[in-house]
Backbone:
């Protein structure tokens, strides 16, 4: 598998590219979309009632790759498990990666000009998925007890490092 391009290549919001047909696969624009790396969107204790909700919000409209979402989810989960304890929180990833990212690989090296197509047929092959997020949109939610606000903030700061936009943390008392 090829290495990942830098996140700056896919950060900007472009025209959405999601066309993949189930009934008529030959009519699909995008062939062979990879599965998202993130599989579990909800972690922790789903039955308990917590009295504090904390949200990680992005400040700019941006595309977040599926592997960045998975890295942020793992960072929050590890931090909360270590500092608060297993089953003492609820973690939700609120966005889903629908947008298909494409890459038009250009050949380099000796003799590349003989078999490279350049920008002819440059639609590109699907390489991954991204979630399209607007400025001010909530990306991750955690629910914890009111006394654990410091640990929740620390966990969300770790997740903010993994995302391609600057983020803010919002605390809302649950009802």
Residues:
């Amino acid at each position: 598998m090829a290495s990942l391009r830098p996140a700056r290549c896919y950060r900007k919001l472009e025209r959405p590219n999601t066309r993949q047909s189930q009934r008529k696969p030959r009519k699909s624009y995008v062939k062979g979309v990879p599965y998202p790396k993130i599989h579990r969107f909800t972690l922790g204790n789903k039955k308990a009632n917590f009295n504090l909700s904390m949200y990680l919000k992005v400040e700019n409209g941006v595309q977040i790759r599926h592997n960045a979402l998975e890295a942020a989810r793992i960072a929050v989960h590890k931090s909360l498990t270590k500092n608060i304890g297993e089953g003492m929180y609820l973690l939700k990833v609120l966005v889903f990666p629908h947008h298909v990212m494409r890459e038009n690989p250009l050949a380099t090296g000796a003799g590349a000009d003989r078999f490279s197509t350049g920008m002819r047929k440059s639609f590109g092959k699907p390489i991954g998925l991204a979630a399209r997020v607007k400025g001010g949109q909530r990306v991750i939610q955690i629910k914890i007890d009111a006394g654990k606000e410091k640990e929740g903030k620390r966990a969300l700061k770790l997740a903010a490092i993994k995302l391609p936009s600057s983020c803010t943390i919002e605390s809302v008392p649950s009802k």
About this structure: The CA atoms of residues 62 and 133 lie 5 Å apart. Residues 32-102+126-173 form a domain with the Aldehyde Oxidoreductase; domain 3 fold (CATH 3.90.1170.10). The longest strand covers residues 125-133. DSSP finds three helices and eight strands in the chain.
